[in-house]
Design a protein that fits this description.
heterodimer, A: globular, B: Alpha-Beta Plaits, six-stranded mixed sheet, 11 helices, 13 strands, 34% helix, 28% strand
Chain lengths: 248, 308
């Protein structure tokens, strides 16, 4: 037996863990479908749809913030939530809890992987929007909003994963995703919804994120109340996620 | 408490409802020893191991693992442990090589991949995804991940459950090799054969209590007679088994393996006669019928008698 057994320096385990988390996000075909194909498809399909009133600007100006919101939901809520729930189901989290990997490294690796995927998603959507749909806008100012939205939806995904069994997380995350596609103001303007539903929809994270991104990307001021409400959701969901998180 | 004790449990109690958990457990594992924990399903084997691993905090009692509290001193303790869970524990879509590289990155001085996979007989499966491995291969990868950090103390929870005979031999050899290197090993098992072949000492746990703790030889010696071993060509039907248990001389019959039974009796000769008569009339054909299992199985059966 040689010397005392020690944990690796954390930057080394972080690098390895980040690499694996990223690989796992990108390796599953269903993840690629929901993270990359679906947002692009929604953009392409709805850019030609006749639901936008004439003279209200290009459809892409409405759609780009919407599909960025969809992309963030896909990665943070659907993919991260479901994969975390299944990692617990397969006892991966339990096993990691019995390894020298510090908990903060695991969390940082998951967050890093989600952010890297989202950078790719947003870049892809913006390039496609500019090349094919004549979109232009102010990206830099919207980055803090995208980060806030990422934490919010990752919090929601991890809350589901912490509260529910793996199969229910799968169903719940996909169900919410479908619902949010309809009421999130992402491809369908909120004012197309029934009157009673509109105030409810406007208070939920997807519409809060898509509408504030729309303002920021269009270089207009983001409504203070929208921003505050989104921040409250983010704090609540991130808090719930860390309270409910279980290793096994 | 000797200075060379790797694990010490003193009065450890952990309950999950009325019939689960462990009760007032005292157990010491010496440095370099291989201790097998044996017991029926639900006896508290996994609870015992998980308390030592630091996954569970006992309701009462003290736990010392390599001189540390495995829950409070987790960060100092855990790099010295090798943990193999009963099942799972690996990202299903990672390949063998990717999983090994990931776990190697958690330790300052990991075992090189080639050497490690050689040890568990998975050298030809480096590129295979975990989910495509057989059950036995998945278990051996899990063993490799437990060994990658050169642990001082190895926990194996039913390491060979569901393995084919070849995989079992490879695993046993890997465990013996760790033992030779001075690693302390604690393994739980259902298999008396495994305990007999590997263990320096055997702890038998039943209903959360330690009912025996000794070397396999001493336990077998203390077991004595009173047991009849029966093997049949095919397994008995439930009715057949009920009739077996109902024989006048048989106190209890237990199927210890498919078509293999251990019968507890006050009078072995009488039991032989009755069993032979029963099976002559009702079948199935007898392959083997003899007094004394001559193994840990007997001891186990006697000590864990009142579970059913």
């Amino acid at each position: 037996m040689s010397g005392p057994q020690l944990a690796a320096p954390w930057p080394r385990s972080l690098r390895a863990q980040l690499r694996v988390e990223l690989l796992l996000l990108l390796r599953q075909p269903e993840n690629l479908l929901v993270m990359l194909v679906l947002p692009v498809l929604l953009l392409a399909l709805f850019a030609g749809a006749r639901i936008f009133p004439a003279g209200a600007g290009r459809p892409a100006e409405f759609l780009i913030p919407g599909v960025i919101t969809v992309a963030i939901m896909s990665t943070g809520m659907v993919t991260l939530g479901i994969s975390t729930a299944y990692q617990r189901y397969y006892r991966v989290l339990k096993r990691l809890g019995g390894s020298p990997l510090p908990r903060f490294v695991l969390v940082a690796a998951k967050a890093g992987a989600v952010l890297l995927v989202e950078v790719g998603q947003v870049a892809l959507l913006l390039v496609i929007g500019r090349l094919f749909f004549g979109w232009s806008g102010e990206v830099l100012g919207a980055i803090p909003l995208m980060l806030l939205g990422s934490v919010c939806f990752a919090g929601l995904g991890l809350t589901l994963a912490g509260a529910l069994r793996a199969e229910l997380t799968l169903g719940g995350a996909n169900g919410l995703y479908l619902l949010f596609l309809v009421v999130g103001g992402v491809v369908l303007p909120i004012d197309h919804l029934p009157g009673w539903l509109q105030p409810v929809a406007m208070a939920l994270p997807p519409a809060l994120l898509s509408s504030s991104l729309r303002a920021a990307l269009g270089s207009t001021a983001v409504a203070g109340s929208t921003l505050i409400l989104l921040a409250v959701w983010t704090v609540v969901l991130a808090g719930a996620a860390s309270l409910l998180f279980r290793w096994e | 408490m000797t200075p060379t004790s790797a694990v010490t449990l003193r009065g450890v109690t952990k309950s999950y409802g009325p019939r689960r958990g462990v009760l007032d457990l005292d157990l010491e594992v010496a440095e370099g020893e291989l201790l097998a924990v044996l017991g029926p399903n639900g006896a508290g084997k996994t609870t015992t191991v998980e308390i030592m691993e630091g996954y569970r905090r006992p309701d009462r009692g003290t736990v010392r693992v390599l001189g540390l509290d495995p829950v409070r001193d987790r960060r100092r303790c855990v790099p010295q442990l090798g943990i193999m869970l009963q099942e799972g524990g690996v990202y299903p879509s990672l390949s063998v090589g990717e999983a090994v590289r990931l776990f190697a990155a958690y330790f300052a001085n990991p075992v090189p991949q080639g050497e490690l996979l050689e040890m568990v007989g998975l050298s030809d499966r480096v590129r295979s995804r975990y989910r495509t491995l057989s059950g036995g291969e998945q278990q051996r990868l899990s063993l490799a991940l437990a060994l990658v950090g050169r642990p001082r103390l190895l926990f194996l929870d039913e390491p060979t459950a569901g393995m084919d005979p070849r995989a079992r031999l490879v695993t046993w050899e890997a465990v013996r090799e760790q033992r030779r290197r001075g690693v302390t090993v604690l393994l739980t098992t259902h298999s008396m054969e495994e305990a007999e072949r590997l263990a320096d000492r055997v702890a038998i746990i039943d209903q959360g209590r330690l009912v025996a703790l000794d070397t396999p030889a001493a336990l077998i010696g203390a077991g004595g007679g009173g047991v009849v071993e029966l093997e049949t060509v095919e397994a008995l039907t439930p009715e057949g088994q009920a009739k077996l248990s109902a024989l006048a001389s048989v106190e209890r019959a237990q199927e210890v393996a498919p078509a293999r039974y251990l019968l507890r009796t006050a009078s072995p000769p009488q039991a032989l006669v009755e069993v032979a008569a029963l099976l002559r009339d009702e079948g199935p054909q007898v392959l083997r019928l003899k007094v004394g299992g001559g193994s840990l199985e007997e001891v186990f059966l006697k000590l864990t008698g009142d579970t059913h």
